[in-house]
Amino acid sequence: MNKKLLISAFFFFFVFSLNLLPQEESKEKKIWEDERISITVDKVERADSFPERLRNSYTTYHQPEKGHDFVLIHISLDEKKDLRIKASELRNLRPKSPHLIDDRDKTHWMSFAQYNITIRAKKTGYLVFEMPKEATPVKLKYIYQYREEPPKSKKIKYGQIDIDLSHIQ
User: Fold this and answer.
1) Which residues pair with 46 in a beta bridge?
2) 22 sits in which H/E element
């Protein structure tokens, strides 16, 4: 009787351990959001030249400044509300554009983005920044444009979501 109980307990422990293993390995992605959008940072990538797999034929790519490299932040963006903005209206003006803060509290402005915020579907893409090689990105200030509900929809407004990058690499 004790052998059967011992074997059953071992079998139960073994099956339970196998179920826990995949849960420990999977990393749950954090979602940052406000009332208009939700954003997930899928990956932060650094490269000393623009990655070949992301290049297209209609863009000219330059090397980063000496002592710098590219920081690519791969994102998934989901619109909760219609932002009521057209592609032709988008402006990339400092300080109203996405920027990175590094571990030395320096600001790095976005060089360009590869995704389209003006379409309604879930958007995936990346933001590109140049940063000194010895600096580490710690915070992304994601700034986006939108309009209020009609009738107050004339003026373009800005939303901001602060994203902690210290646990994403």
Assistant:
1) 71
2) helix 2-25
Core vs surface per residue 120-159: b (16+ CB within 10 A) or e: eeebebbbbbbbeeebbbebbbbbbbbbeeeeeeeebbee
Q: Categorize the per-residue pLDDT at 121 as very low, low, confident or very high, splitting at 50, 70 and 90.
A: low
Cα–Cα nearest to 71, from 117, 138, 124: 138
27 pLDDT above the threshold of 60? no
Q: CA dist 100 to 20, 58, 66, 97, Å?
A: 36, 26, 19, 10
Residue 133 and residue 67 in contact, taking contact as beta carbons nearer than 8 Å: yes
Cα–Cα distance measured from residue 126 to residue 115, given in angstroms and rounded to the nearest whole number: 7
Q: How many Cβ atoms from other residues are within 10 Å of residue 100's Cβ?
A: 25
Tell me the DSSP string of 141-166: EEEEEE-PSTTS-SS-EEEEEEEE-T
User: Do residues 103 and 138 lie in contact, with contact meaning Cβ atoms separated by under 8 Å?
Assistant: yes
Nearest 10 degrees: CA dihedral of 115, 119, 124, 130? 30
> Is-above-0.90 flag for pTM?
no
Question: Is residue 8 classed as helix, strand or coil in its secondary structure?
Answer: helix
45-49, 107-111, 153-157: least confidently modelled range: 153-157
The per-type count for the chain, helices as H runs and strands as E runs, is 1, 8
